[in-house]
Amino acid sequence: MEESAAVPSSSVGPGQIRFADACLPALAAGDYRLRMDQEVRAAPLVPLPMHSVPYASELLFSVDGPRFRLEPADIHATYPPPGAAGTFADALPHVVFTRRTLPWERTLDGGPQGDPPRPWLAVLLLGEDELLAGVEQGEGRAVAACVPPRPLPVCGGADGKEDSLLFARDPQGRSLARIRVPALGQEGPDHERLLARHAGERCQALDLPAKLFAAIAPRDVDLPWLAHARLIDTGDKEIFRGHDQGWYAVAIGNRMPGAGGAHHAFLVSLEGFADVLADFSRLDGYTSVRLAVLASWRFECVGKGDFKARMRGLDAGAFERARNAGERAGREGAGTEGTAAGVDAWLHLPLPEPAQAAESAPVRLPGEAPTPAALVHGALARGYAAFDHRLRHGEQTVSWYRGPLVPLEYPQPRLVQRLVRCSDELLRYDPECGMFDTAYAGAWQLGRLLALQNRGFVLALERARLGLRRRLAELRHAARLASLVRCAGVRGEPDDGGRPGRLREALALACAEAIEAGVGAGRAGLGPGPTPIAPAASAPTAAPVLRATELEAMLAEASAWLGRLVLLYGVPLHNLVPDEDMLPPETLRFFFLDPNWIQALVQGACSVGNADGGDLLVNRVMRFCLSPTVGDPAAETDLPIEVGAAGEAGRAAASVRARLRAECEGRATASAKASEKVSEKASTASPAGLAWPLGGFLLRSAVVEGWRGLEVEAWQGGNKLPALRIEQLADDVMLALFNGMPDTVEIRQPREGLHFGLSPTVGGSGFTRTQRDPQTGAALVGRPIDVPMRGVPEPGANVLGAPGVIDIDALAGVLRSVSAPGVAPTASASAPAAAGGAVPDGVVAAQPFGPGAFAMQMIEAAGAFRFQIVAGGARVG
Known about the structure:
Layout lengths: L2 E4 L10 E4 L9 E9 L16 E9 L11 E5 L11 E2 L1 E4 L23 E7 H6 L13 E7 L25 E2 L10 H7 L4 E8 H7 L10 E6 L14 E6 L9 E8 L4 H5 L9 E13 L6 H6 L12 H8 L21 H7 L11 H10 L3 E6 L5 E6 L3 E2 L21 E3 L4 E3 L1 H15 L1 H33 L15 H14 L2 H5 L24 H19 L6 H4 L10 E7 L1 H12 L9 H10 L22 H7 L1 H9 L5 H16 L9 E6 L1 H5 L4 E6 L2 E2 L2 E8 L2 E6 L5 E5 L7 E2 L1 E2 L6 E3 L15 E2 L21 H12 L13 E3 L7 E3 L5 H8 L5 E7 L2 E4 L1
């Protein structure tokens, strides 16, 4: 078998998938014996030394892994989504695992993995009538009914009389010999070890009629085709912790659901059933089969709840950009350019109907006060909502509030250097309506509370403040000392210690003047602020300043946390969307990010530990450097810092996503760290950060919960915008924020969860499948392939049969014969879909037509929907 080098995720571009037959672990779960023998051999004509008896040592160890239950984090997604109702009768159910090796970490019989590799688990599908009512045979004779999953001990109690997964017993403790349980060594020499290892462990157990199990369970020859691995690009997705660099494993079912009914899918362990899957006649004499259930979910094949139907029915409103003129709408009444009456795609409360808006905003004469209805309409158009407000002195009032996601565009943040000691200083009063605007006050207070929750940030902020105070004092004293030395006429003759002759006198004079100037009072915030550092008239060079690299090192820890805060990590959803009516179910709403709200949030976080004001110069420098944007150097000419030192929080925010991907997906390699250092150096030379104005969208829909890991791309003027944050905030709410304001957004079905789809025949008695090009994955024009189904059982075996069970091995044989007769398809990392072989520890090997190529032939195309913002409306495709 020819093997190639490990395939990094960078070899798969956006929208591409790479398939692999299997990802095998270094060692499958089980017990191992490691023996070492050392033999000493003498050289020719040299006698053996004394004590040269060969040395031998032996080590027994076990490799553990999931067996009777899975952790929730092991499963990334299921299809169809749990609890969903839609047109799922044309797709096979499947489970997507976060760990690429999970389906092959065990074997069916506990021995070495076979060739081709076989997964130890499978997806079984049951109709709800089969699960709840059992299966009936001819002439009214009933066989054993299904027993739905229920918790059972793995091995039973200490007395061995409790019903369990591995030991079936009746309530009286008698053995139930006609229930086939997993054969895991209960009757062999490993009996005691099995009991000791799984004592006290419980799992979900499902009892199926033996003949129903034989009708729907995959055969031994089917199993290799029912699991494969996929490599996708994760650059346009939410970042999931613990995921394997874009690798996923997928287990597929072998039975199509029936239209118009409810179904239950079960992920079960097949370990201990190797003999049964090779020959179902071994179930003769058994009435039931007991299986360990690793996961289960229910769905219905009714209605239109699939991905494409839900996205087509999404309420995206009528798009209309609300620019800066939207701020004037509240003052000048409705109908001002830049706002939209009625339902639109921007994030705000519903506006009055057009007729009501016209009545509420009559033509105003110069100097005439706006009507209350016009004020309310303008506030809603700017994203505000009214809430009860209790003032500090106990009075109750109603005030306006809005979060950072607003329906109008702002320029980049204003560099406000005024020290804010409490949130009330940011309250704004509107005399026209007699109400307070609490937006920025709430942001400041929220930032302070979030900072107080994070002990690491508070300590980092205090370290940065102390280091900055010390460094600024050094610069101030160095400039004064240089001036005193020049005034004293030092000519450079060294004294006994090698220092200039009169340096000691100059130092003493500098210290005395520093004390006299009130350095202590300035540090306590009681005296006047420090004067700007200016060179003496005779100085040949400018005054010393703090370098950008020096500031970056000082503020690195604090700016890293603030960078996440700028992207609203940790901000509760009700602070982002204060009223649920702003984001109704099944809607898509766009927004701009209010930079002044973000500025207040950051300032509130930086106020921790500085309640008394502290050193005014230190506070000004920190607020300037830790701002969310690269400021204008001309605005702060008196600060002793290098040009371009501002905007550390913004630069940190721009790199948060890359750092999180490296941390959560295991992408932090030596080369990546080296390139990261180079990029950091480049960023100091050329300040780069957030490209204001920033924008994005909020999606509230069942697709967020049902199709985990939606892929999102955005463009502005044809140029792709980098994503700053893509995250699921609630079960059905997703936030996407980009480095810029997009004019086009595309939402795609997650490629790791693309399902196996078949087309029903005209008569509805079978299914067909369209062939794909093995190199590009494109559908080929031609006669569809008839999908072979499992044969109808003989009378007396199972009269009702199990409709919809596919003969997977026969289908793979048909696809193999028509895709490349006599020629094995080759892997291609650059193609949209490519097939590979077994992947031991991430090493991909080219193979003949295998499970990877079979998966490429069977998957359905991803659904993609593009929303383009245009003047006066929206175009959705």
